[in-house]
Amino acid sequence: MLPSVLRCASPISTTLAFTRPLAHFRPHMAPDPNRPVEGAIRTKLTQQLEPEHLEVHNESHMHAVPPGSESHFRVLVVSPRFDGLSLLQRHRLVNETLAEELKSCVHALAIQAKTPLQWGSNPSIAKSPPCMGGSKGDHTVEEKLKAGRD
Predict the structure, then answer these.
(1) 133: alpha, beta or left? (left if phi > 0; alpha if psi -120 to 50)
(2) What is the pTM of this model?
(3) DSSP letters spanning 91-138
(4) 56 has pLDDT over 70
(5) In this structure, are strands 53-58 and 108-114 parallel, antiparallel, or unpaired?
(6) Which of 6, 101, 127, 141 is deepest in the core (most CB within 10 A)?
């Protein structure tokens, strides 16, 4: 378990190319070393999918988890690698890329995976609904929260 936790919290550095910033989202700066899971997600998606646009939003504050948690995320990935792939195939690519985080420290991942053409015609990100307490029945949440802190 320890090696997977360390992979989940490994230090990272990355630069991203943004094609069109959204006015209602603040631009993403260099990864925050206090947010290792978010940084790992950003790095892996950048390396594997070479996105033209990438947004990683930690939505843990919207859920019943301790302050500072990194357990619930929404990602928007716009990549030419998605051209010709079905939505299901795109989601599988994202899930495969983040398999380690999903096994160890990420409880929920909302994915928007768009081609550059789709993004060009509709440059928006969906909003997540408020927490409905779904983690109360998931006994792995406590383990994942601990893994994200270690």
Answers:
(1) left
(2) 0.68
(3) HHHHHHHTHHHHHHT-SEEEEEEE-HHHHHH----PPPPPP--GGGG-
(4) yes
(5) unpaired
(6) 101
